[in-house]
Model the fold of this input.
Amino acid sequence: MKIKTYANKIIEIDLNDLSENSNLLALPALIDPHVHFRVPGAEHKEDWQTGARAAVAGGYTTVIDMPNNNPPVINYAGLMEKKKIINEQLKRSGLPLNYALYLGATKNNWTEFEKCAQQIAGIKLFMGASTGNLLVDKKEDQEKIFAEAARLNLLVAVHAEDEATINNNKQGLFHSVIRSREAAIKAVSQALELAKKYKTKLYLCHISTAEEINLVAEAKKEGVTVYAEVTPHHLFLNENDYDRLGTLGQVNPPLRTIKDNQALWQAINDGLIDIIGTDHAPHTLKEKAKPYPNSPSGVPGIETCLSLLLNACHESKITLNKIVELTHDNPQKIFNLPKNNDLVIVDLDLKKEVKNENLKTKCGWSPFVGRALTGWPVAVIINNKIKKL
Ligand code: DOR
Ligand code: ZN
Ligand code: ZN
Done:
């Protein structure tokens, strides 16, 4: 059958068993620059077989994976070992998922950056502790990281929550009180200051508050090379969802207010957000069932993001052009990824509910369970092969 592609070309694809009536469109397959596929060390949460299946089911054929593994990926040997395991697991999955990796920053491993520079998408810096033990919270150590990354023209991706602020709030009862908005605002200001000082390419992971958006807007105006990422959970969930989700909604940085949701949408449509990254961070239901604060932070997201966005498009909150820009064009450019001709075929009119039993991620649950969404991926073309979903 003939399918219209996003760039107004027509392609012929053998998808005979898809209904003639469906409203099909081919988009460039998505790129997710922020996933935690848990290898090595937490394969009971996810591995690259289940991760690749989840990615493709969500319309993604390229991912960039985070280094907060066990052991953390902080040097050349660790990087090579991780690649070897990933390649084996992908081979077994039969899915030629494209991927790149971050190197984790520690307080003294900046001497490794040069060795790894050709092998990585960038450096990942945790300014506040999250899952795993990667943390660089002293400014003098962060300075060395920003300086060396700038010298090598490496991008620095930051988890920007201020460790001291979080620790001062530790007596608080709620996750969003402990990991307050001030913690995020303070760390983002500091990261921007360092990026400006050293002329480092800065990637702000998961910005979640209206104030962070204002800081990004100012920095962009001043010519700082800064890219802002938002996640689906900070766009489509907020504090009101805690009642329903409990610790399933526990994530770093935390879910914020409806006003923050609105500010993030406004920022998307004002052109201040560069990328939608899922921060796919699976934990098992058993782990999530531990009482707070022993429950781990993180939510899966790679399988539902595109459908959430297509549904938002259906509701006129975002255009298709914007979706393609934030999930394909910008990540491709910002991370300088090789071009490919992978596509995702979406049915813009297909209405389906998010169901845990349909998910491919090993953790087997979604914070978006029960949502009826209009617009779903129905097939992916990966490395010139069609994979029907
Ligand atoms: O909620 C989170 N989960 N935030 C992070 O920064 C890490 C992630 C994880 O790896 O579980
Ligand atoms: Zn993070
Ligand atoms: Zn993350």
Notes: The radius of gyration is 20 Å. The mean pLDDT is 96. The first strand starts at residue 2 and ends at 5.
